[in-house]
């Protein structure tokens, strides 16, 4: 993988069903203070079964960054992330997506 590649510099999570990948997410972290949770996706054929919620719970509770500042950017699923204590903040800024 090329240096500087987003996936190559991430901790990746896969969710498999019968040997096929049905879920994916990644965390970009410095292991010291922050963890950016990115690209959480569940294949459309497997949505509505609580897999995204389970996967997000596993990721946010990972001891490598469970006590760090965790953040994400999303256009949807706000209700899911709020169940895990995530909320909007006027202090969180980003470039235009």
Task: Describe the structure in brief.
With 97 residues, this protein is α+β, with helices and mostly antiparallel strands.
Q: Would you mind describing this structure in some detail?
A:
- The protein has 97 residues and is an alpha+beta fold.
- It is 15% helix and 30% strand.
- The chain has two helices and four strands, in the order βββαβα.
- It has a four-stranded mixed β-sheet, with helices on one face.
- A hairpin with a 4-residue loop joins β2 and β3.
- The longest helix is centred in the middle third of the chain and has 10 residues.
- It is globular and about 40 Å long.
- The mean pLDDT is 88.
Write the layout of secondary structure elements.
Blueprint: E1 11-17, E2 20-29, E3 34-42, H1 51-60, E4 69-71, H2 78-82
Parallel strand pairs: 3-4
Antiparallel strand pairs: 1-2, 2-3
Structural class, judged by helices and strands? alpha+beta
Give the fraction of residues assigned to helices.
Answer: 10-25%
Mean pLDDT, rounded to whole units? 88
Radius of gyration: 14 Å
CA-CA gap between termini? 25 Å
Low-pLDDT windows of residues: none
Q: What's the shape? A: globular
Order of helices and strands: EEEHEH
Features:
97 residues; alpha+beta; four-stranded mixed sheet; 4 strands; globular
């Amino acid at each position: 993988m090329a240096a500087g590649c987003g996936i190559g510099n991430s901790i990746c999570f896969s969710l498999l069903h019968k040997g096929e990948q049905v879920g994916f997410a990644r965390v970009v972290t410095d292991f010291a203070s922050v963890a950016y949770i990115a690209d959480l996706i569940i294949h459309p054929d497997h949505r509505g079964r609580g897999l995204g919620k389970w996967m997000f719970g596993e990721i946010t509770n990972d001891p490598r960054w469970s006590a760090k500042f965790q953040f994400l950017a999303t256009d949807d699923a706000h209700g899911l992330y709020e169940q895990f204590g995530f909320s909007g903040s006027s202090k969180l800024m980003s470039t235009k997506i």
